[in-house]
Design a protein that fits this description.
CATH class of one domain in chain A: Mainly Alpha
Order of helices and strands of chain A: HHHHHHHHHHHHH
Largest interface: A-B, 90 and 100 residues
CATH class of the largest domain in chain B: Mainly Alpha
Number of domains of chain B: 2
Order of helices and strands of chain B: HHEHEHHHHHHHHHHHHH
Number of helices of chain A: 13
CATH topology of one domain in chain A: MetI-like fold
Radius of gyration of chain B: 27 Å
Oligomer: heterodimer
Largest sheet of chain B: 2 strands, antiparallel
Distance between the termini of chain A: 38 Å
CATH superfamily of one domain in chain A: MetI-like
CATH superfamily of the largest domain in chain B: MetI-like
Shape of chain B: flat
Structural class of chain B: mainly alpha
Helix content of chain A: over 70%
Strand content of chain B: under 5%
Largest sheet of chain A: none
Number of helices of chain B: 16
Shape of chain A: globular
Strand content of chain A: under 5%
Radius of gyration of chain A: 25 Å
Structural class of chain A: mainly alpha
């Protein structure tokens, strides 16, 4: 296609690049602003009006305060627990269910499928679910953030489709050698499904990382709050007073803005660091999800 | 005849027995899954009957006084009903109207790039916001839209006056929809970029030989190539129309913006969990779920007819 480009096409190319640059700028700037603002000197930050092109001075005081903060630390640990243990449970149970539903012939297959599909179509709703979980005495229990969402029908369907693509003969020969279903799943199916497992870890992991609503309605005990809920207190309810207890009231007000931005950076950085490594699974994940559940 | 039937039954029994023995492992493996679904999905579904009862904590879900459609009547008759329905539909339809084409356009623009490195950079940058948590996005919005925030600073540069955008009902929809587009456009474009990469290159060569310009190629080769993907994505989206991102609404709205921001699910949350009006709010929630189910079944049927693809 080494044909000569027309004038119009050249003009378009230039415009295209400019448009995409603008889009990238709009996407990136709000985040860059946060980083600049978090290290700026408080006095200059408050006096400045608006757009930061570079940090105003440099101070890491806000970060020091954020790292000294107890609730951010426990929030982090709680979220870490959810993302590791929670996601582990999610993927294990999803794999178990997907294995069963991907088997070829057994009597209750249609019934099992129905059980799953009905939950995709209909849910009890917020209030009945809340009352039921209350009646299980799960309120204020750490596991309330893991158990009710143990399995997502949508993810189960994606994983089942992927398992169905593995040749039946592999399983058959293992069975002849005396393997039971559990062994087949662990030894044959899972080692062949690394990509789909990565996608599941991505989907469940990101949702655990982001979730706050269930924690807000089911947990009372602040020491069990995940990071996002702590963020809500600091950022949305604007409760920065808990942050800098060894500062005078005036200084506190001055640095409040910096603390907010530093908190955002600290809370967003981990997922941004993981991001480049999981990027190659995006396409797989989205494609499997969109083709057929 | 009778003998025949009993023989038949015997055969069925034998079949069941054999199936249970042969697939013992499968049934044991599925047991925890069934327990999960029953405990956390079917029991709440059964509990949805409190929509027809006057809930009292002492009597529990099944023991509370049965009031029939009383809560539904109250809801449909209240002034809230139209406001909630209007806001729910407005937010989701606007999100569809702007959020749906945006990733397609972005993918098409990226597809025209010749510089691969630049393309990768744009992709990486635009995927990024998807991984910022909703909490952080909302706190940024609150910060930037406040009276001394970034947006006002920019407005002042252009001679505007300062306003608290999140306290004005008329701005809520724009803020909600635009921030949604900002956060999800890149991520949602992935599927279209993959579809574009799969378009047969020979078609372009043929089009070039036929004298098609770049624009004509887009119109007659590229677009038809990704239409199936667009249709599937649209159908999948239609089924979730009543699912407005209510967590975002809860984080961003306030009593000053209820007029445009309050949607059915936030109303359920307020009435139910904050005011402990369980029966009534469960009824409102049930109304939402029923419409959702109808939409899902409807779009799934359409999708099966059109593309022979369906979700279930």
């Amino acid at each position: 296609m080494a044909l000569k480009r027309t004038r119009g096409e050249k003009v378009f190319s230039v415009f295209n690049v400019i448009i995409l640059l603008i889009i990238s700028f709009i996407t990136l700037y709000p985040m860059v602003y946060v980083i600049f603002a978090s290290v700026s000197e408080p006095v200059r930050l408050i006096k400045s009006n608006g757009i930061l092109i570079y940090p105003l001075g440099f101070t890491t005081l806000a970060y020091k305060l954020v790292f000294q903060n107890r609730s951010i630390l426990t929030g982090y640990l709680n979220t870490l627990f959810l993302v590791t243990v929670g996601t582990g449970c999610n993927v294990a149970v999803t794999a178990l269910a997907a294995y069963v539903l991907s088997r070829q012939r057994f009597m209750l297959k249609r019934f099992f499928n129905l059980i799953v599909v009905v939950t995709m179509l209909f849910s009890g709703g917020l209030i009945p679910t809340y009352l039921v979980i209350k009646s299980y005495n799960l309120l204020n229990n750490r596991w309330v953030l893991i158990l009710p969402g143990l399995l997502t029908a949508y993810n189960l369907m994606i994983m089942r489709t992927s398992f169905e693509g593995i040749p039946f003969s592999l399983e058959e020969s293992a069975k002849i050698d005396g393997a039971n279903d559990f062994t087949v799943l662990i030894r044959i199916i899972l080692p062949l499904s690394k990509a789909i497992i990565a996608v599941m870890v991505l989907f469940y992991g990101v949702s655990h990382w982001n979730s706050w609503f269930n924690a807000a309605i089911y947990l009372d005990d602040r020491s069990k709050y995940p990071l996002q809920l702590i963020l809500r207190e600091i950022l949305i309810s604007n409760d920065v007073s808990a942050m800098g207890n060894d500062l005078g009231a005036n200084d506190q007000e001055m640095i409040a803005e910096n603390i907010k931005y530093a908190t955002i950076v600290v809370a967003t950085l981990p997922i941004m660091c993981v991001y480049p490594f999981i990027q190659k699974y995006f396409v797989t994940g989205v494609m499997i999800g969109s083709v057929k559940g | 005849m009778i003998q025949n039937a009993s023989k038949h039954r015997e055969g069925t029994l034998k079949y069941i027995k054999r199936d249970l023995v042969r697939n013992k492992g499968i049934y044991i493996m599925f047991l925890p899954v069934i327990i999960y679904f029953v405990l956390f999905h079917y029991v709440p579904m059964y509990g949805a009957q409190i929509a027809f009862r006057d809930y009292s904590a002492r009597q529990g879900i099944t023991g509370s006084l049965f009031v029939g459609f009383e809560h539904f009547k109250t809801f449909f008759g209240s002034s809230y009903f139209w406001r909630l329905l209007r806001n729910t539909l407005a937010l989701s339809l606007l999100a569809l109207a702007f959020g749906f084409p945006a990733p397609i356009i972005l993918a098409l623009l990226m597809n025209e790039l010749r510089n691969k490195t630049f393309k990768r950079v744009v992709q990486t940058v635009t995927y990024l916001p998807y991984f910022i948590s909703l909490m952080v996005v909302c706190s940024l919005l609150i910060d930037y839209l406040s009276k001394d925030g970034l947006f006002n600073d920019i407005a002042v540069l252009f001679g505007g006056t300062r306003t608290s955008y999140l306290l004005q009902a008329e701005y809520y929809r724009t803020i909600h929809v635009a921030s949604g587009v900002w956060q999800n456009m890149g991520w949602n474009s992935i599927v279209y970029i993959s579809a574009l990469a799969a378009v047969d290159q020979q078609l372009y060569e043929a089009a070039v030989i036929d004298g098609a310009s770049r624009w004509k190629q887009t119109l007659h080769v590229t677009l038809p190539g990704i239409v199936p993907t667009i249709v599937i994505m649209l159908i999948m989206r239609m089924g979730t129309i009543m699912n407005v991102g209510f967590e975002k609404v809860i984080l961003l709205y306030n009593s000053a913006t209820y007029e445009t921001a309050d949607v059915i699910s936030t109303f359920v949350y307020r009435k139910g969990l904050q005011e402990a009006n369980y029966g009534y709010s469960a009824a409102v929630g049930l109304f939402n779920s029923v419409i959702n189910t109808l939409l899902l079944v409807g779009t799934n049927t359409i999708s099966r007819r059109l593309n022979e693809t369906s979700l279930f």
